[in-house]
Write a structure and sequence with these properties.
Blueprint: E1 2-4, E2 9-11, E3 15-17, E4 26-27, E5 32-33, E6 38-39, E7 50-54, E8 59-62, E9 71-73, E10 78-80, E11 84-89, H1 95-103, H2 105-113, H3 125-128, E12 132-134, H4 138-177, E13 186-188, H5 189-192, E14 193-197, E15 206-207, E16 211-214, H6 216-221, E17 229-230, E18 239-240, E19 245-248, E20 250-251, H7 253-256, E21 258-261, E22 267-269, E23 273-278, H8 283-292, H9 294-303, E24 310-311, H10 314-319, E25 321-323, H11 326-365
Parallel strand pairs: 4-10, 16-22
Antiparallel strand pairs: 1-12, 2-11, 3-7, 5-6, 7-10, 8-9, 8-11, 13-25, 14-23, 15-17, 16-17, 18-22, 19-21, 19-23, 20-24
Helix pairs in contact: 4-8, 4-11
């Protein structure tokens, strides 16, 4: 049996004083990550005195461009912008179950189909509450949530481990290459690696099948699905695969300038994102070298920022130099590789866990998979 979404939840329209918020508990469409990627810290707080409030257990959804699939299960009380929907479970509805119902791709597809506007579509709040959801017992909801939460908790644990592994690797990098006596040779970041810019695509080249086109939005959250695909012919140099180092050096400096290890299989890189190839077969050193310089890249891009955007150029990379000792770099590569390979393997495991969760989610929510035998 199904009913309107309004049978199990409602919109929250409470207010909170902005002065009581921090960048960690303020949510806007900018710090909600695409593809159900969660939340990052906000860049700033609103200037108004009051803003929309939320509580732990509420579900926050960006109502702008629903195809970005920005959703977050609130872990604490806080505030958010008016472009974020705050949805709260009614009595006899498990909040985490509600979160998974709204995380289903079917919900975001429905939200797009009923949205208003073309250039920047917004979800229709009335239509959203008419979305059809299964009416299940509270016990069944909790069992479904338990299955999916186990996968999400493993993903969160891997992320926590990886944060520690990356901190260890960067600490080793600083010990070996920062504040040490320079060698006679100085090499620039540009000379050390090749930076391969992504391809420019014409709208008519894109379709709903082929290789996923990797843009900055996908880099920030990981690409399990894409809004654009390419099935034509482009130079092989634009194709990326697992473990490639990708450098986004254009966009909003605080949220877009970053370095990534790619972990989502084959894709084709969009322009303004770069595949970085070490010229000396020192893959992990190259990644850590760029990661260490990330604050510098953000500073450079911020100083060039116009209309919210900034960029790093080849000239900037030529100016950034470091002491070059190939033997020392190769020894460091050997030292740090076990740490970074574990880091990479955790990313791959998270990809597989997320795929499993996304496959199970619609089957569990629809009742296609029976959870009656699960013991809590």
């Amino acid at each position: 049996m199904k009913s309107n979404l309004s049978a199990i939840c409602f919109y929250v329209r409470e207010k909170i004083m902005v002065e009581s918020l921090t960048k960690k508990n303020y949510v806007s469409t900018e710090n909600l990550l695409p593809n159900k990627g969660g939340l990052i810290e906000a860049n700033s707080l609103p200037t108004a005195m009051l803003t929309q409030s939320y509580k732990a257990g509420d579900i926050l959804i960006s109502n702008i461009r629903p195809y970005f699939k920005k959703i977050y299960f609130a872990q604490e009380n806080g505030g958010c912008s008016n472009d974020v929907l705050v949805i709260r479970a009614k009595e006899h509805t498990n909040p985490k179950f509600l979160y998974y119902v709204l995380s289903d791709n079917a919900f975001f597809n429905y939200s797009m189909d009923t949205s208003k506007g073309t250039k920047m579509p917004r979800g229709d709040k009335i239509a959203i509450m008419q979305y059809q959801v299964p009416i299940l017992s509270l016990n069944t909801q909790i069992k479904i949530s338990s299955v999916l939460s186990d996968l999400d908790e493993k993903i969160a644990l891997n992320n926590k481990i990886n944060n520690n592994l990356l901190d260890q690797a960067l600490t080793l990098f600083k010990e070996h290459f920062v504040s040490t006596n320079a060698t006679s040779e100085m090499l620039s970041l540009y000379e050390f690696a090749e930076y391969i810019n992504g391809a420019a695509f014409k709208p008519k080249e894109l379709s709903d099948m082929g290789l996923p086109v990797i843009k900055i939005a996908e880099l920030k959250s990981g690409i399990t699905d894409s809004t654009r695909y390419f099935s034509g012919n482009k130079d092989e140099k634009y194709i990326v695969s697992d473990k490639d180092i990708l450098f986004s050096w254009s966009g909003n400096p605080e949220t877009s300038i970053d370095i990534f290890i790619w972990t989502f299989g084959k894709g084709i890189l969009n322009q303004h994102t770069f595949n970085v190839k070490s010229k000396f077969n020192c893959h992990w050193f190259t990644y850590l070298l760029l990661k260490y310089h990330k604050p510098t890249f953000i500073h450079i891009a911020s100083n060039k920022q116009t209309t919210g955007l900034g960029h790093v150029t080849a000239t900037d990379l030529k100016r950034l130099k470091f002491p070059f000792n190939l033997s020392k770099i190769q020894n460091f590569e050997t030292l740090v590789s076990p740490i970074m390979e574990l880091y990479f393997n955790n990313l791959i495991e998270n990809r597989n866990l997320a795929n499993t969760r996304n496959t199970l989610l619609p089957q569990l929510v629809s009742g296609q998979l029976d959870v009656s035998a699960i013991e809590l």
